[in-house]
Amino acid sequence: MARSLTTKSPVSDRMRSIRRVLWGILFLNLAVAAAKYLYGTYSGSASMQADGIHSVFDSAGNVVGLVGIALAARPADEGHPYGHAKFETYASLVIGVLLLLAAFEVGSSAVGKLATQTYTAEVGPLSFAVMIGTLAVNLGVTVYERKQGKLLKSEILAADASHTLSDAMVSIGVIIGLALVSLGFPMADPIMALIVTVAILATAYDVFKHALATLSDHARIPEEDVRKAVMEVSGVQDAHRVRTRGTEGEIYVDLHVLVAPEMTVAAAHDLADEVEQSVRRRFENVVDVLVHVEPDDGHSE
């Protein structure tokens, strides 16, 4: 026999919290992008302009995240009996693609400057003020979004925090480049842009790695940890075939428990309920538990 328990609300508080975080960060990213790109254009700094473009990609990532969360929050239906949570993962993949596009934009611009030996950056106190101010905003956003991503177990917030961190890395590279330009090394501006391109690609790799772990149904909870929770239930003689999958915020579990062969169907039904509750108490992100009850008669593999 098998028992399953699901108590997921159609639009959870978790999804609403993620949406609020993304809206706030979207407006901050737009302001940062405008400041860097406009002043970069005015001063002729390739790295500042590239940094502004990268910040625009950050904003696009926020929009992708909002769309992904809107889809992920939809309740389960006939076509999607397990719900729509993986749309959050798909959105994080899109952010990974945006990171690749940002790396291409930054890198190609830098290569063009080096190939033509066109160094147009003009550095002044305002250049550093703009970059340091926007860097402070990016670092604050990254820390806040990463903290919320861990708290809410959100793949989209984790991916977007990585995206914003890559923007901060770009800004640090730009500041170093501007400092070297002011010391008489104009080539430093596009060279730093190339170094930052590598950092963005590394960030994209990390985003793809986490998203593919979900899409490939990578185990979310160690089997032995689930088994310990199950074995706390009186009447369970053993547990095996423990499997977990899903997103970090919505985990699905199925397992087999062995009970005394003489146990009645009613008693087995109650025991399955206790197993489900034990697993859900131990792991708060579990939204569904499927328990297969088997007689411990020596025939189980």
UniProtKB/TrEMBL annotation:
Residue ranges of the TM segments: 21-39, 89-111, 123-144, 165-185, 191-208
Keywords: Membrane, Transmembrane, Transmembrane helix, Transport
Domain Cation efflux protein cytoplasmic: start-end pairs: 224-295
Segments forming domain Cation efflux protein transmembrane: 25-215
Keyword Transmembrane belongs to the record: yes
Example GO biological process: intracellular zinc ion homeostasis
GO function term, MF aspect, one: zinc efflux antiporter activity
Membrane topology annotation: Multi-pass membrane protein
Localization per record: Membrane
Principal localisation: membrane
An example Gene Ontology CC term for this record: plasma membrane
Family note: Belongs to the cation diffusion facilitator (CDF) transporter (TC 2.A.4) family.
Protein name: Cation transporter
Native source organism of the sequence: Paraeggerthella hongkongensis
